[in-house]
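Components:
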Amino acid sequence: MALALLPAVLSRPPWPMLALASLSGWLALASVPHALLRPQICGVLAGSGFDLGTVEAALNIDAAAGLVPFWLAMLLAMMSLLLSQPIIYLWRRSLTRRRGWAIVEFLAAYLGVWMLAGPVLLALATAVRVVGQGSEAFAITVVGAVAFAWRTCPAQQICINRCHVLPRLSPFGLAADRDCLGFGFRTGMWCVGACWPPMLLPLTTDTLHLLLMPVVTLLLLKDRLAPTRSPRWLMFS
Amino acid sequence: MARTRKEVWGLGEGWNDTVLWYARGVDALQKRPITDHTSWRYLAAMHGFDQEIWRAFDYLAAGENGPVESDLMSRQCQHQTWYFLPWHRGYVAAFEAIVRDAVVKLGGPQDWALPYWNYSNTNNSRAGELPLAFAVDKLPDGSPNPLKVTRRYGADGLGRVVISAQDASLQQAMLEPEFPGKASGGTTGFGGPETPFSHLGSLFEPPNPSGVLEDFPHNVIHGAIGGFRRRGNPNAWQDNGLMSMPDTAALDPIFWIHHSNIDRLWEIWLRRDPLHKNATERVWLDGPADRTFQMPRPDGSPANYTARQMLKTEDLDYIYDDVSDPLSGETRLAARFRNLGLAAPARAASRAMEETVARPAELIGANAAPVRLEGRSIATQVPISQAEARNLAASFSFSRGLAADAPLKEPDRVFLNLENIRGANDGVIFDVYVGVPLGADPKNHPDRRAGAVSLFGVSKASQVRSGHGGNGLVKVIEITHVIDSLQASQAIDLRQLNVEFVPRQELLASDAISIGRVSVYRQGK
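Structure:
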């Protein structure tokens, strides 16, 4: 990319707002100690050793409640920059009086899907730590290998392609609400499908969490912006 | 000294030196292997390339492959973006230099320049006919004519290429006041919508529509020359003419003299009105942000360029023999006021209105369901939001003398958007009518005709594998002139618009043409 043109590119809406949302997420994560964001998980992992009970603990309601602000901050930080295409689409294709509401509905459904995925992903990450007797190196290696393998298989490309589907939007009334919510829901589902292994990576470590997040964010952005293509096994193509 | 590009019909009806040397130059380029960056096929692949289609059309021999996807120079064509004009200027100039180099090596003139085809020339009754040198089988010496291509089927599919005066109309393009437009439902600008990234970098944004010149008449001319001919093939592309599809268009020698004319129209637009100016944004002049445009020199070495270097044809060593205004000074506002049945505003008032910055376009209504285009005529109703219908009507209030002492304010412009157009047949052209009474034949209401839409590029836009997400094309057609006429005769109900699509040839299910949503936008000042 021509770096000299970057400021001109990034000053076009909605990039400033998306960048602000992402920055808010990063600031939230960086300014609050991990232990406060994930008290139940950290406490469980540190206190009771690494066994199946740890995984169960990750799935209980208290853990889930403690997860919400942390997970939201992670999503804000990492996902905001991926949403330029649907947000621009909603803005252009909605009645003026509905534009803000259309975007809120989309984001609510999109984030709702990711919020439901959060505990599952955390349980998975915890399970990997359990198998590795708590070793972060083991967990990162295993999840990294899964993420790499996932990126080479056709299913991931199918999910990425589906993330770019821009559906018809009814202009008026409840049908408009239904379509915006449905758009957010489906985009969220396909986004989870495409991104779940790399999103696991930061969850496998406490010490390298904030270091892995920007790496994963750039990877997700690269995938999101790459031209769509026919699903195929990348290693055989 | 700059070389002069001349109008092909002005050079005479049959063969002449310019066109004969063009044919010899094309022949020389066609003999070069595809791996040579100055070969006919490589130059065509820079516009677009599809291995399957090229092989089926015998443009790739057995065992031969086209350029790989990582080849920066190939598949570069810029459409649905404001880079459309500068990229094509560089492309055609590079082609011209390579052909001239071949011409000179064959003993031809140093001042050879690519001719252009002015199909809009109202002073020549034959202007819309395919120039004869492109239609005959043999050169004067009896050898095969490389300018003749059998895959040209015309708009009606019968093989005779004649561009109608309607299809060649320059009204929409020449009267469009601004170069850069937006992709938000209103005017897309003479030169195309602002996009910070190139055509293939478009996944940051939803699909963009074409600029006004790109759609009218550029895309329509592609379809009117290439067209398609029903031969019962399972895939629509097998029946398409070369000019109908972006991946094969530049294989037809007529492509280059069509684009020479489109380039000339850019010059004319700049000269015909002091308010007509190129974009000044740095992203346009020095962009795009995601790649470099690159063309081969006659020696095959690559040369990078940006729009900044494409602003003056003299800098590229050519001029046109005729850049006079085909609309004789007509302005958009004068035409509009005439349509409204009003006297043209005074010059100062007209200037003030033209210089007022347009507000962003706003959606005011859309139809209820996707539209499948099959058969000979397809209609859909577009309900308009009641509040917006009132706002739109209010913008016409000056014409009813309700604001006689207020500064003159132009009524809203109105645009039809055809969103998520998907299909398998690029050669389709259909006419769009607005406000035809239900049950009436649209052809009996020429004043309700909004324009023609060409589906040049639809199949690639519909395919996920082509890189753009598979969301199809977006077309923006200004219907202000139709709304104005209906307003003037008070024959319009702004709460609902009837929109009808009339294809030039009957459409079949196998063409798979659908429009995701038909919507209406207004754009005020």
